[in-house]
């Protein structure tokens, strides 16, 4: 199959995955009553922030609260209304899925590369502890460039310290977030491994394509 035709089919397939179903952003109230560890279930996974703190005790991400795809946890007296940003916020990005992923391929990677850091640990001196699932290490923060040789596609990616991710390929933009040592784009999840020049990622369940990302800023 011609490369451009294969690309269009892959993009269309992933756009369907990313755009269905769609959910609106929502708010979850979660409180550490009696300074006890408490969990609050998420009805739909997404990027979580404190919308309004309700306690006199501090709500510090990674220390007195954090989240993953299933739930928010709070501890040490933290109580807050948490905003959950879901994939509905990025429906237009899913419709132009060539942005981050050119199908599942643009972020796909083979993890057998020789330059993968063998002693990689997803943390640095600012890591708060094992419950810090939203943690983003310093080596992953910045602007990166990658190239997909199978589709002849260039991609740039910006990762912020708060875990938000924006990627651009051919003028198309897709947004995601880092959580639990993985990149989440809609309902597609990518594993992350550090390399000497940046990192590589692999779609969970589909590690057939190689894409390297190197730091440019």
Instruction: Look at the helices and sheets and give the structural class.
Output: mainly beta
Strand content is 35-45%
Computed Rg: 18 Å
| Principal-axes shape call | elongated
Helix content: 10-25%
Main sheet summary: 8 strands, antiparallel, barrel
Low-confidence spans: pLDDT under 50, at least 5 residues? 9-20, 89-112
Structural commentary:
By secondary structure, the protein is mainly β. 10% of the residues lie in helices and 37% in strands. The protein has two helices and 14 strands; from the N terminus they run αββββββαββββββββ. The chain has helices at 3-19, 91-95, and strands at residues 26-31, 38-41, 47-53, 65-67, 71-74, 79-85, 142-148, 153-159, 164-169, 172-179, 182-185, 188-194, 198-203, 212-215. The strands form three sheets. An eight-stranded antiparallel barrel has the order 7-8-9-10-11-12-13-14. Strands 1-6-3 form a three-stranded antiparallel sheet, with no helix packed on it. The chain has a three-stranded antiparallel sheet with strand order 2-5-4, with no helix packed on it. A hairpin with a 3-residue loop joins strand 12 (188-194) and strand 13. It is elongated and about 55 Å long.
């Amino acid at each position: 199959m011609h490369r451009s035709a294969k690309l269009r089919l892959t993009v269309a397939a992933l756009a369907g995955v990313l755009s269905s179903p769609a959910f609106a952003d929502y708010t979850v109230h979660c409180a550490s009553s009696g300074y006890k560890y408490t969990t609050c279930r998420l009805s739909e996974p997404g990027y979580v922030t404190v919308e309004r703190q309700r306690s006199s005790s501090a709500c510090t991400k990674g220390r007195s609260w954090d989240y993953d795809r299933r739930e928010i946890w709070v501890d040490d007296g933290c109580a807050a209304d948490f905003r959950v940003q879901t994939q509905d916020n990025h429906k237009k990005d899913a419709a132009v899925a060539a942005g981050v992923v050119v199908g599942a391929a643009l972020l796909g990677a083979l993890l057998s590369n020789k330059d993968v850091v063998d002693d990689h640990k997803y943390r640095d001196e600012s890591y708060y502890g094992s419950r810090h699932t939203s943690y983003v290490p310093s080596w992953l923060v910045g602007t990166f460039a990658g190239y997909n040789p199978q589709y002849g596609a260039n991609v740039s990616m910006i990762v912020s310290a708060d875990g938000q991710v924006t990627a651009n390929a051919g003028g198309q933009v897709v947004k995601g977030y880092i959580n639990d040592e993985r990149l989440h784009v809609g309902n597609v999840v990518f594993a992350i491994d550090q390399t000497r020049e940046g990192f590589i990622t692999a779609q969970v369940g589909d590690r057939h394509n190689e894409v390297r990302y190197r730091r440019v800023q």
